[in-house]
UniProtKB/TrEMBL annotation:
PANTHER family: POTASSIUM-TRANSPORTING ATPASE C CHAIN, POTASSIUM-TRANSPORTING ATPASE KDPC SUBUNIT. InterPro entries: KdpC. Keywords: ATP-binding, Cell membrane, Ion transport, Membrane, Nucleotide-binding, Potassium, Potassium transport, Transmembrane, Transmembrane helix, Transport. One of its GO terms (molecular function) is ATP binding. Part of the high-affinity ATP-driven potassium transport (or Kdp) system, which catalyzes the hydrolysis of ATP coupled with the electrogenic transport of potassium into the cytoplasm. This subunit acts as a catalytic chaperone that increases the ATP-binding affinity of the ATP-hydrolyzing subunit KdpB by the formation of a transient KdpB/KdpC/ATP ternary complex. It is a single-pass membrane protein. The keyword Transport applies. The gene is kdpC. The system is composed of three essential subunits: KdpA, KdpB and KdpC. This is Potassium-transporting ATPase KdpC subunit. The chain crosses the membrane at residues 12-33.
């Protein structure tokens, strides 16, 4: 019995020391080499500071809406709904989002709504939407803000972020940056 318990206790203590101390400091050191020293990507606008890599809740008709969040945009933790695409509760939630979107965007047909505007991301913190997700909202924002649709489309095109190194991912739009640009639009 001693031959199994003592090595097990030693290994447990060694792993606790490694993962609570050594590993933590290694990751902290690597983060210091990154942009903003591991503190996230910050954006300042109108005297306030925001994290551009965490989704923000925009629900006013004069702004571009973010992707829905399964964690109600709470950056303290992330998580998806953990419900499959055939789950009745999930389907009901998506239908409520579709109905709400159509009420605020009466010029849009249901089949023209991109999935990223009615489904939450796996983390619930996705700060980006697709280009189509932005363009489908232009009509609503034009009416609410008295900015021409052409100017709004130009603003969307100016805020397109290309894939990493031109290879990884898809083109996307950071909703926070787009709405900051929209709020400063003359």
């Amino acid at each position: 019995m001693k031959t199994n318990i003592l090595p097990g206790i030693k290994l447990t203590l060694l792993l606790i020391i490694f993962f609570m101390g050594v590993y933590t400091f290694i990751i902290l050191g690597i983060a210091q080499l990154g942009p903003n020293h591991g503190k996230g990507f910050m954006v300042e606008a109108d005297g306030k500071t925001y994290y551009e890599n965490i989704a923000q809740d925009f629900s006013d008709d004069k702004y571009f809406w973010s992707r829905p969040s399964a964690v109600n945009y709470n950056a303290a933790g992330s998580g998806g709904s953990n419900k499959g695409p055939s789950n009745p509760d999930y389907l009901a939630t998506v239908q409520v989002r579709i109905d709400s979107f159509l009420v605020h965007n009466p010029d849009i047909r249901k089949e023209d709504i991109p999935s990223d505007l009615v489904t939450a991301s796996g983390s619930g913190q996705d700060p980006n939407i697709s280009i189509q997700g932005a363009l489908v909202q232009v009509s609503r924002i034009a009416k609410a803000s008295n900015i021409s649709p052409d100017n709004l489309k130009a603003l969307v095109n100016q805020n397109i972020e290309k894939p990493l190194l031109g290879l990884f991912g898809t083109e996307k739009i950071n909703v926070l940056k787009l709405n900051i640009a929209l709020s400063h639009f003359k």
